[in-house]
Amino acid sequence: MQTVLSIAIDALAYGMVLFVISIGLSVTMGLMRVVNLAHGAFAMIGGYIASYAARDLGLAYGFAVLLAIFGTIVIAVPIERLLYRRIYGAPELTQVLMTIGITFCIIGIANYVFGPTLKTVPLPSELQGSVDLGFRAIATHRIFAIVCGLAVAAGLWYAIEKTALGVKLRASVDNAAMAAALGVRTEIVYAVSFAVAVGLAAFGGVVGAELLPVEPYYALRYMVTFLVVVSVGGAGSIPGALVACLLLGAIDTTGRYLMPEFGEFFFYLAVIAIICVFPRGLAGRAKG
Q1: Would you say residue 203 has pLDDT above 90?
Q2: What is the dihedral sign for C-alpha 132, 214, 197, 231?
Q3: Among residues 107, 103, 118, which one has the least CA distance to residue 51?
């Protein structure tokens, strides 16, 4: 029973970390129609900035997280303005080649600035230790990651479905020319959406540093993982991404607990099975 509970808690925490990081990619792929393979690189930048802020500058964990989010956005906005706007609406292969190139450039610069070593983000005393639930003790950081994932899911759903920005974003996706004719400044809508996606990536990179360590090739190591969970959930679908992250997180964690010698075999086997049954993802929409 203890093993089952351990698997369940670790799987839930891992799934939530995947969700926080990859939901920004779901937004760019599903709503902005950009295959952004550099998304993991922005999560890596957030992790590096938070590590530097907490370890070298001695800032509190909360300030390090905020600095990581805003610092990553400041870095990403000029990249969106100069590079990403050139590939909006471009063929997918063009987007893939461009964003892979951006990924390698970011990796090179990050390694030059921060060094080619694994970085950690020191946790505050409040997030260290564990919480005793009576039947089992759960690491406080795991609970924090789960709460962050739920908060991000609720906040992002509300922003897209219930706010003026969300309406403008969905209108720009459905018919950019018509939205522009009606006064929607699509470039600003895309820039804000991209900044939010990048900020979420950075936040996930910091919160998930205990589960997905920040190291020199973080962006490449997890590039496929982030892309896979978005594809399984259905690009642009928040509930789909959440279900996909929890499902795949549970399968991957269970496999690593019970048969670690198989590595990620069960994770990708599940991906193949789901895509065979749901070609557009669990909550994917047919193209209009």
Answers
A1: yes
A2: negative
A3: 118
pLDDT of 288 strictly over 50 = no
What is the CB-side half-sphere exposure of residue 129 using CA atoms within 13 A?
A: 5
Q: Can you list the pairs that 149-152 forms with residues at least 24 positions away whose Cβ atoms lie under 8 Å? A: 149/15, 149/16, 149/17, 149/19, 149/20, 149/242, 150/16, 152/19, 152/20, 152/23, 152/200, 152/203
pTM (predicted TM-score): 0.88
Burial of 273 (C-beta count, 10 Å sphere; 0-12/13-18/19+): exposed
Question: Exposure pattern of 225-236 as b/e (b: 16+ CB <10 Å)?
Answer: bbbbbbbbbbbb
Tell me the domain boundaries of the chain: 2-216
Chain centroid to CA 182: 32
- Give me the sign of the Cα torsion angle 229, 274, 267, 129: positive
Beta bridge partners of 16: none
Overall residue count recorded for the chain in this entry: 288
pLDDT attached to residue 105:
93
Q: Which of 238, 235, 246 is nearest to 281 (CA)?
A: 235
